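> @MW can you paste both from yesterday?
MW: sure, first one:
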Amino acid sequence: MAHKRIRKFNTKDTYPEQKLNNDLCQAVVTEGGRTVWLRGQCPQNLDDGINIQSNDPAEQTHKVMQNIKQLIEEAGGSMSHLVKIVVYITDIKNREAIYRVIGQYVKDVYPVSTGLVVERLARPEWLVEIDATAVIPK
Protein backbone atom coordinates (compact mmCIF):
# COMPACT_ATOMS: atom_id res chain seq x y z
CA MET A 1 0.00 0.00 0.00
CA ALA A 2 1.08 3.50 -0.76
CA HIS A 3 0.00 4.93 2.61
CA LYS A 4 -0.14 3.81 6.22
CA ARG A 5 -3.66 2.70 7.14
CA ILE A 6 -4.41 2.79 10.87
CA ARG A 7 -7.00 0.51 12.51
CA LYS A 8 -8.27 -1.26 9.42
CA PHE A 9 -11.71 -2.83 9.65
CA ASN A 10 -14.41 -4.31 7.49
CA THR A 11 -18.01 -3.17 7.67
CA LYS A 12 -19.24 -6.77 7.86
CA ASP A 13 -17.85 -6.74 11.43
CA THR A 14 -18.95 -3.19 12.26
CA TYR A 15 -22.47 -3.55 10.84
CA PRO A 16 -23.21 -7.29 11.12
CA GLU A 17 -26.93 -6.70 10.56
CA GLN A 18 -26.22 -5.32 7.08
CA LYS A 19 -24.83 -7.17 4.08
CA LEU A 20 -21.77 -4.96 3.63
CA ASN A 21 -18.15 -5.80 2.86
CA ASN A 22 -16.18 -2.56 2.78
CA ASP A 23 -12.49 -2.36 3.68
CA LEU A 24 -12.10 0.90 5.61
CA CYS A 25 -9.85 2.31 8.33
CA GLN A 26 -9.92 4.90 11.07
CA ALA A 27 -7.00 7.00 9.75
CA VAL A 28 -4.67 7.26 6.77
CA VAL A 29 -1.17 8.69 7.02
CA THR A 30 0.44 10.05 3.85
CA GLU A 31 3.91 11.44 3.28
CA GLY A 32 4.67 13.82 0.45
CA GLY A 33 3.26 13.18 -2.96
CA ARG A 34 0.51 14.93 -4.85
CA THR A 35 -2.95 15.40 -3.36
CA VAL A 36 -5.87 14.96 -5.72
CA TRP A 37 -9.05 16.65 -4.51
CA LEU A 38 -12.05 15.39 -6.45
CA ARG A 39 -15.24 17.33 -6.90
CA GLY A 40 -18.28 15.50 -5.57
CA GLN A 41 -18.98 12.85 -8.20
CA CYS A 42 -22.54 12.20 -9.31
CA PRO A 43 -24.10 9.60 -11.62
CA GLN A 44 -23.28 11.42 -14.83
CA ASN A 45 -20.75 11.13 -17.62
CA LEU A 46 -17.51 13.01 -17.10
CA ASP A 47 -17.22 14.06 -20.74
CA ASP A 48 -20.65 15.58 -21.32
CA GLY A 49 -22.28 15.88 -17.88
CA ILE A 50 -25.27 13.82 -18.97
CA ASN A 51 -26.93 11.81 -16.21
CA ILE A 52 -27.06 8.04 -16.58
CA GLN A 53 -30.58 6.80 -17.26
CA SER A 54 -31.14 4.91 -14.02
CA ASN A 55 -32.93 5.45 -10.74
CA ASP A 56 -31.24 2.38 -9.27
CA PRO A 57 -28.92 3.31 -6.36
CA ALA A 58 -26.42 0.55 -7.20
CA GLU A 59 -26.16 1.60 -10.86
CA GLN A 60 -25.79 5.24 -9.88
CA THR A 61 -23.05 4.32 -7.41
CA HIS A 62 -21.18 2.27 -10.02
CA LYS A 63 -21.08 5.34 -12.26
CA VAL A 64 -19.91 7.55 -9.41
CA MET A 65 -17.13 5.13 -8.45
CA GLN A 66 -16.10 4.65 -12.09
CA ASN A 67 -15.76 8.43 -12.35
CA ILE A 68 -13.62 8.54 -9.19
CA LYS A 69 -11.39 5.75 -10.49
CA GLN A 70 -11.04 7.42 -13.89
CA LEU A 71 -10.16 10.82 -12.42
CA ILE A 72 -7.53 9.37 -10.07
CA GLU A 73 -6.02 7.47 -13.00
CA GLU A 74 -6.03 10.61 -15.17
CA ALA A 75 -4.08 12.31 -12.38
CA GLY A 76 -1.49 9.55 -12.60
CA GLY A 77 -2.63 7.42 -9.67
CA SER A 78 -4.67 4.33 -8.90
CA MET A 79 -7.44 3.43 -6.48
CA SER A 80 -4.74 2.31 -4.02
CA HIS A 81 -3.99 6.03 -3.58
CA LEU A 82 -7.55 6.80 -2.43
CA VAL A 83 -7.42 8.08 1.16
CA LYS A 84 -10.88 9.49 1.91
CA ILE A 85 -14.45 9.40 0.67
CA VAL A 86 -17.48 11.32 1.83
CA VAL A 87 -20.73 9.66 0.77
CA TYR A 88 -23.95 11.64 0.52
CA ILE A 89 -27.18 9.67 0.08
CA THR A 90 -30.75 10.92 -0.08
CA ASP A 91 -32.52 7.87 1.36
CA ILE A 92 -31.26 5.68 4.20
CA LYS A 93 -33.04 2.72 2.59
CA ASN A 94 -30.47 2.85 -0.24
CA ARG A 95 -27.49 2.71 2.10
CA GLU A 96 -26.76 -1.00 1.81
CA ALA A 97 -27.03 -1.06 -1.99
CA ILE A 98 -24.77 1.98 -2.29
CA TYR A 99 -22.15 0.71 0.16
CA ARG A 100 -22.09 -2.76 -1.41
CA VAL A 101 -21.00 -1.13 -4.67
CA ILE A 102 -18.48 1.13 -2.94
CA GLY A 103 -17.05 -1.98 -1.30
CA GLN A 104 -16.19 -3.44 -4.71
CA TYR A 105 -14.06 -0.40 -5.53
CA VAL A 106 -12.32 -0.04 -2.14
CA LYS A 107 -11.50 -3.73 -1.62
CA ASP A 108 -7.99 -3.88 -0.10
CA VAL A 109 -7.71 -0.06 -0.25
CA TYR A 110 -8.98 0.91 3.25
CA PRO A 111 -9.81 4.62 2.85
CA VAL A 112 -11.40 6.59 5.64
CA SER A 113 -15.07 7.21 5.02
CA THR A 114 -17.83 9.50 6.21
CA GLY A 115 -21.46 8.88 5.30
CA LEU A 116 -24.26 11.40 5.42
CA VAL A 117 -27.96 11.23 4.70
CA VAL A 118 -29.09 14.50 3.16
CA GLU A 119 -32.48 15.83 2.18
CA ARG A 120 -31.51 16.24 -1.48
CA LEU A 121 -28.63 16.66 -3.88
CA ALA A 122 -28.20 19.25 -6.65
CA ARG A 123 -30.47 17.30 -9.01
CA PRO A 124 -33.57 15.49 -7.76
CA GLU A 125 -32.79 12.30 -9.71
CA TRP A 126 -29.43 11.84 -7.98
CA LEU A 127 -29.50 9.31 -5.14
CA VAL A 128 -25.78 9.43 -4.30
CA GLU A 129 -22.83 11.80 -4.51
CA ILE A 130 -19.31 10.96 -3.37
CA ASP A 131 -16.38 13.27 -2.96
CA ALA A 132 -12.96 11.73 -2.72
CA THR A 133 -9.35 12.56 -1.96
CA ALA A 134 -6.33 10.66 -3.19
CA VAL A 135 -2.62 11.16 -2.51
CA ILE A 136 -0.26 9.94 -5.20
CA PRO A 137 3.19 9.19 -3.72
CA LYS A 138 6.34 10.67 -5.21
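MW: second:
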Amino acid sequence: MPILNTGRFDINYVDEGEGFPLILIHGLAGDHTAWLPQIAAWKEKYRVIAFDNPGSGDSSLVGEPVSTTDLADATLGLMEKLGIEKAHVVGRSMGGAIAQHMALKAPERLQSMALAASFARLDPVGAQVIKNLQQLLKWRKSWAEWAPHAVYLFVAPKFFNENEELMTKITALVSGEDRDMVSYDHLATACIEHEALDQLSNIKTPTLVMGGQYDPICSMTAQNWMMDKLPNATLEIFKDSSHFFLIEEPAKAMATMEAWFDKNAA
Protein backbone atom coordinates (compact mmCIF):
# COMPACT_ATOMS: atom_id res chain seq x y z
CA MET A 1 0.00 0.00 0.00
CA PRO A 2 1.25 3.53 -0.76
CA ILE A 3 2.31 5.99 1.93
CA LEU A 4 2.28 9.80 1.61
CA ASN A 5 3.86 12.37 3.89
CA THR A 6 1.46 15.17 4.85
CA GLY A 7 3.96 17.18 6.85
CA ARG A 8 3.86 15.88 10.41
CA PHE A 9 2.74 12.36 9.54
CA ASP A 10 3.23 9.59 6.99
CA ILE A 11 -0.20 8.30 5.97
CA ASN A 12 -0.88 4.77 4.73
CA TYR A 13 -3.89 4.67 2.41
CA VAL A 14 -5.90 2.85 -0.23
CA ASP A 15 -7.31 4.60 -3.31
CA GLU A 16 -9.75 2.54 -5.35
CA GLY A 17 -12.30 3.21 -8.06
CA GLU A 18 -13.17 6.22 -10.15
CA GLY A 19 -15.78 8.92 -9.91
CA PHE A 20 -16.51 11.57 -7.31
CA PRO A 21 -14.24 11.08 -4.26
CA LEU A 22 -15.30 9.60 -0.93
CA ILE A 23 -12.96 10.06 2.05
CA LEU A 24 -13.50 7.44 4.78
CA ILE A 25 -12.07 8.20 8.25
CA HIS A 26 -12.04 5.38 10.81
CA GLY A 27 -12.44 5.51 14.58
CA LEU A 28 -10.20 5.31 17.62
CA ALA A 29 -9.47 1.58 17.86
CA GLY A 30 -9.46 0.79 14.15
CA ASP A 31 -7.61 1.34 10.89
CA HIS A 32 -8.60 1.58 7.22
CA THR A 33 -9.70 -2.08 7.16
CA ALA A 34 -12.80 -1.06 9.13
CA TRP A 35 -14.07 0.23 5.77
CA LEU A 36 -13.44 -2.87 3.63
CA PRO A 37 -17.16 -3.62 3.02
CA GLN A 38 -17.78 0.00 2.03
CA ILE A 39 -14.74 0.13 -0.24
CA ALA A 40 -15.88 -3.02 -2.03
CA ALA A 41 -19.41 -1.67 -2.46
CA TRP A 42 -18.62 1.89 -3.48
CA LYS A 43 -15.52 1.63 -5.66
CA GLU A 44 -17.67 0.78 -8.68
CA LYS A 45 -19.26 4.25 -8.54
CA TYR A 46 -16.87 6.47 -6.60
CA ARG A 47 -13.19 7.08 -6.04
CA VAL A 48 -12.86 5.72 -2.49
CA ILE A 49 -9.97 6.74 -0.26
CA ALA A 50 -9.57 5.06 3.13
CA PHE A 51 -6.47 5.46 5.26
CA ASP A 52 -4.89 4.74 8.61
CA ASN A 53 -5.12 7.70 10.95
CA PRO A 54 -1.80 8.74 12.52
CA GLY A 55 -1.18 6.32 15.37
CA SER A 56 -3.08 3.52 13.61
CA GLY A 57 -2.27 0.77 11.15
CA ASP A 58 0.84 1.50 9.11
CA SER A 59 0.76 5.28 9.40
CA SER A 60 3.15 7.22 11.64
CA LEU A 61 3.06 6.51 15.35
CA VAL A 62 1.84 9.25 17.67
CA GLY A 63 4.43 9.59 20.40
CA GLU A 64 3.22 12.88 21.82
CA PRO A 65 -0.13 14.58 22.45
CA VAL A 66 -2.24 15.13 19.36
CA SER A 67 -5.59 16.79 18.74
CA THR A 68 -8.48 16.11 16.39
CA THR A 69 -7.48 19.39 14.70
CA ASP A 70 -4.03 17.92 13.98
CA LEU A 71 -5.68 14.83 12.52
CA ALA A 72 -7.95 16.99 10.35
CA ASP A 73 -4.86 18.77 9.01
CA ALA A 74 -3.35 15.38 8.13
CA THR A 75 -6.50 14.35 6.27
CA LEU A 76 -6.71 17.62 4.35
CA GLY A 77 -3.02 17.19 3.56
CA LEU A 78 -3.71 13.73 2.15
CA MET A 79 -6.48 15.15 -0.03
CA GLU A 80 -4.06 17.80 -1.28
CA LYS A 81 -1.37 15.23 -2.11
CA LEU A 82 -3.92 13.08 -3.96
CA GLY A 83 -5.21 16.03 -5.98
CA ILE A 84 -8.71 15.86 -4.47
CA GLU A 85 -10.37 19.26 -4.50
CA LYS A 86 -13.68 18.18 -3.00
CA ALA A 87 -15.17 15.00 -1.55
CA HIS A 88 -17.93 13.45 0.47
CA VAL A 89 -16.36 12.84 3.89
CA VAL A 90 -17.56 9.98 6.09
CA GLY A 91 -16.26 9.85 9.65
CA ARG A 92 -16.79 6.99 12.05
CA SER A 93 -16.64 7.85 15.78
CA MET A 94 -13.32 9.71 16.17
CA GLY A 95 -13.34 10.04 12.38
CA GLY A 96 -16.46 12.19 12.63
CA ALA A 97 -14.73 14.47 15.12
CA ILE A 98 -11.90 14.85 12.61
CA ALA A 99 -14.39 15.58 9.81
CA GLN A 100 -15.93 18.43 11.85
CA HIS A 101 -12.59 20.24 11.99
CA MET A 102 -12.16 19.67 8.26
CA ALA A 103 -15.52 21.34 7.67
CA LEU A 104 -14.54 24.24 9.92
CA LYS A 105 -11.09 24.69 8.39
CA ALA A 106 -11.83 24.08 4.71
CA PRO A 107 -15.59 23.98 4.03
CA GLU A 108 -14.96 24.32 0.30
CA ARG A 109 -13.33 20.86 0.33
CA LEU A 110 -16.42 19.00 1.60
CA GLN A 111 -19.34 18.20 -0.68
CA SER A 112 -21.11 16.65 2.29
CA MET A 113 -20.30 15.11 5.65
CA ALA A 114 -21.63 11.93 7.24
CA LEU A 115 -20.99 11.36 10.96
CA ALA A 116 -21.40 7.71 12.00
CA ALA A 117 -21.63 7.16 15.77
CA SER A 118 -19.68 10.33 16.38
CA PHE A 119 -19.66 13.35 18.68
CA ALA A 120 -18.84 17.05 18.90
CA ARG A 121 -18.50 16.62 22.65
CA LEU A 122 -18.61 13.35 24.54
CA ASP A 123 -21.21 13.21 27.26
CA PRO A 124 -19.94 12.24 30.75
CA VAL A 125 -20.70 8.54 30.25
CA GLY A 126 -18.93 8.41 26.88
CA ALA A 127 -15.88 10.20 28.26
CA GLN A 128 -15.77 7.83 31.23
CA VAL A 129 -15.94 4.76 28.99
CA ILE A 130 -12.90 5.92 27.03
CA LYS A 131 -11.03 6.87 30.22
CA ASN A 132 -11.74 3.42 31.64
CA LEU A 133 -10.41 1.72 28.51
CA GLN A 134 -7.32 3.91 28.62
CA GLN A 135 -6.67 2.99 32.24
CA LEU A 136 -7.19 -0.70 31.62
CA LEU A 137 -4.62 -0.73 28.83
CA LYS A 138 -2.09 1.09 31.03
CA TRP A 139 -2.67 -1.33 33.90
CA ARG A 140 -2.59 -4.58 31.95
CA LYS A 141 -0.50 -3.61 28.88
CA SER A 142 -2.25 -6.26 26.82
CA TRP A 143 -4.70 -5.82 23.96
CA ALA A 144 -5.90 -9.39 24.51
CA GLU A 145 -6.93 -8.51 28.06
CA TRP A 146 -8.34 -5.15 26.95
CA ALA A 147 -10.56 -6.53 24.19
CA PRO A 148 -13.22 -8.39 26.24
CA HIS A 149 -13.75 -5.26 28.33
CA ALA A 150 -14.34 -3.20 25.19
CA VAL A 151 -16.29 -5.19 22.60
CA TYR A 152 -19.54 -5.54 24.54
CA LEU A 153 -19.71 -1.73 24.62
CA PHE A 154 -19.65 -1.58 20.82
CA VAL A 155 -22.89 -3.47 20.09
CA ALA A 156 -26.40 -3.65 21.49
CA PRO A 157 -27.06 -6.35 24.12
CA LYS A 158 -29.37 -8.30 21.81
CA PHE A 159 -26.76 -8.36 19.03
CA PHE A 160 -24.05 -9.44 21.47
CA ASN A 161 -26.22 -12.26 22.83
CA GLU A 162 -27.34 -13.55 19.44
CA ASN A 163 -24.03 -13.38 17.53
CA GLU A 164 -21.55 -15.32 19.62
CA GLU A 165 -19.35 -16.40 16.70
CA LEU A 166 -19.14 -12.90 15.23
CA MET A 167 -18.38 -11.34 18.63
CA THR A 168 -15.58 -13.87 19.07
CA LYS A 169 -14.13 -12.76 15.73
CA ILE A 170 -14.42 -9.07 16.64
CA THR A 171 -12.76 -9.73 19.99
CA ALA A 172 -9.91 -11.55 18.25
CA LEU A 173 -9.57 -8.70 15.75
CA VAL A 174 -9.07 -6.05 18.43
CA SER A 175 -6.80 -8.34 20.48
CA GLY A 176 -3.87 -8.01 18.08
CA GLU A 177 -0.76 -7.03 20.01
CA ASP A 178 0.84 -5.16 17.09
CA ARG A 179 -1.03 -1.91 17.78
CA ASP A 180 0.92 0.86 19.49
CA MET A 181 -0.40 1.51 22.99
CA VAL A 182 1.18 4.95 23.35
CA SER A 183 -0.47 6.11 20.12
CA TYR A 184 -3.83 4.75 21.28
CA ASP A 185 -3.49 6.60 24.56
CA HIS A 186 -2.84 9.92 22.82
CA LEU A 187 -5.70 9.37 20.36
CA ALA A 188 -8.07 8.46 23.19
CA THR A 189 -7.16 11.68 25.00
CA ALA A 190 -7.79 13.59 21.76
CA CYS A 191 -11.32 12.13 21.71
CA ILE A 192 -11.97 13.04 25.33
CA GLU A 193 -10.71 16.58 24.73
CA HIS A 194 -12.52 17.07 21.40
CA GLU A 195 -14.77 20.10 21.81
CA ALA A 196 -16.43 21.46 18.69
CA LEU A 197 -20.01 21.81 19.87
CA ASP A 198 -19.96 25.59 20.12
CA GLN A 199 -18.48 25.85 16.61
CA LEU A 200 -21.00 23.62 14.84
CA SER A 201 -23.29 26.51 13.99
CA ASN A 202 -20.55 27.69 11.60
CA ILE A 203 -20.69 24.45 9.59
CA LYS A 204 -22.95 24.92 6.57
CA THR A 205 -21.87 21.65 4.94
CA PRO A 206 -24.83 19.27 4.52
CA THR A 207 -24.38 16.80 7.38
CA LEU A 208 -25.85 13.37 8.01
CA VAL A 209 -25.83 12.48 11.71
CA MET A 210 -26.22 8.75 12.37
CA GLY A 211 -26.55 7.35 15.88
CA GLY A 212 -27.13 3.99 17.52
CA GLN A 213 -29.92 4.00 20.08
CA TYR A 214 -27.93 1.90 22.58
CA ASP A 215 -24.51 3.54 22.08
CA PRO A 216 -22.88 4.34 25.46
CA ILE A 217 -19.83 5.97 23.87
CA CYS A 218 -21.38 8.35 21.34
CA SER A 219 -24.79 8.44 22.96
CA MET A 220 -28.06 9.82 21.69
CA THR A 221 -27.38 12.74 24.01
CA ALA A 222 -24.25 13.49 21.96
CA GLN A 223 -26.21 13.08 18.71
CA ASN A 224 -28.94 15.45 19.89
CA TRP A 225 -26.38 18.02 20.98
CA MET A 226 -25.03 18.03 17.41
CA MET A 227 -28.48 18.28 15.89
CA ASP A 228 -29.28 21.27 18.09
CA LYS A 229 -26.22 23.12 16.74
CA LEU A 230 -25.75 22.03 13.12
CA PRO A 231 -27.75 24.32 10.78
CA ASN A 232 -27.94 21.89 7.84
CA ALA A 233 -28.21 18.40 9.32
CA THR A 234 -30.34 15.27 8.98
CA LEU A 235 -30.62 12.66 11.76
CA GLU A 236 -30.90 8.90 11.23
CA ILE A 237 -31.29 6.70 14.31
CA PHE A 238 -30.45 2.99 14.30
CA LYS A 239 -32.93 1.83 16.90
CA ASP A 240 -31.65 -1.75 17.27
CA SER A 241 -27.95 -0.91 17.45
CA SER A 242 -25.10 0.61 19.39
CA HIS A 243 -21.69 2.04 18.41
CA PHE A 244 -21.12 -0.52 15.63
CA PHE A 245 -24.41 -0.03 13.78
CA LEU A 246 -22.51 -0.31 10.49
CA ILE A 247 -22.07 -3.98 11.43
CA GLU A 248 -25.32 -4.47 13.35
CA GLU A 249 -27.61 -3.00 10.66
CA PRO A 250 -25.39 -3.04 7.56
CA ALA A 251 -28.11 -2.93 4.90
CA LYS A 252 -29.80 0.10 6.43
CA ALA A 253 -26.48 1.83 7.05
CA MET A 254 -25.31 1.35 3.46
CA ALA A 255 -28.65 2.41 1.98
CA THR A 256 -28.75 5.49 4.21
CA MET A 257 -25.29 6.66 3.18
CA GLU A 258 -25.77 5.87 -0.51
CA ALA A 259 -29.02 7.87 -0.55
CA TRP A 260 -27.15 10.70 1.17
CA PHE A 261 -24.41 10.76 -1.48
CA ASP A 262 -27.05 10.78 -4.22
CA LYS A 263 -29.00 13.59 -2.55
CA ASN A 264 -25.85 15.70 -2.22
CA ALA A 265 -24.22 14.78 -5.51
CA ALA A 266 -21.75 17.25 -7.02
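> thanks! The first helix runs from residue 36 to 42.
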